[in-house]
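so the lab meeting is tmrw and i was supposed to have these ready like two days ago... anyway. pasting both below. for each one the top line is the aa sequence and the line under it is the structure tokens. i havent really looked at them closely yet so no promises
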Amino acid sequence: MTAVQPGPPHSPPDGRYGPGADARADRGLRIAAVVLGVLAAAGIVWYGWHYVTGTGVSGQVVSFRTVSDRAVEIHLEVHKDPDAVVVCTLRSEDAEHNEVGRKDVTVSRRSGQVDTIVTLRTTARGQTGELVHCGSAPRG
């Protein structure tokens, strides 16, 4: 009788998948992983850049005061590119947090910083003067 040499369990016969088949598969997977990693990194960098640079527009309410039961004055400060036209949405709420006034204000003055006083008409006594949003004006 011939003795059978024990080999590693479940190993495929030599040469079944061609010489170096495992090495080629590993190399292909490595290349795919590197390409996907580079694409993911590029996407993160692109998103971060756009998040940080944004639209170049920012605004804030410096102060507000209720001038009557039907009006609130809001001191608005906007930072923008000097040539940009910006639309800011302002609002006022009453003591129960119901919106009692809303207005879109177009800021087109050729300056990097614009301070303006806006009178917001209200349907009841306003207790707040808030900036909802500032952004580039739609072109048209």
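ok protien two:
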Amino acid sequence: MSASDASAPDRLECPAAGSGLLPGELRAWMILLAATGAVEQRLRSQVKETLDVSHDEFLILCLLAEQPRPGLRMTQVADLLGRPKTRLTYQIACLQRAGLVTRGSVCGDKRGIQVALTDKARELLRETSALLAGTVRQALADSMGPEQRAALCALVPALEDGPSGC
């Protein structure tokens, strides 16, 4: 057991876990949020350093990367990410200035705006994906013990596909 495994469960334990005040599902949710926060914190700095975009802009790029071309309507992006449309408009404008997305009219709908990744963005994501995945993997390893990782892998089986597994 590594030093991070020994101390990790203590950091993620819910303060009321032993008191019986919270049901198991709520404790599990709180642990998941703590692990997610640890991953997000590391990923934020790595994304800024590597891609020179904000974490929220990175999420937009990831969402668009998973879509077949030509992209998604702005309203779909806002709905899928749970973001206000006004904030999304600003973030898309930043990504467009950086040459990472394009915006265009939706055929047959004068009000509809479609957003798509540029080839530059696809290449940048391709170049940095292994580094960013490693950042997530390490943050998860540092933020939870082996039993918690096993439970997470049971919930998210795709994590087991990585080079180091769960």
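from a quick look at the 2nd one: Residues 1-10 have pLDDT under 50 and may be disordered. The two ends are 14 Å apart (CA to CA). will dig more after coffe
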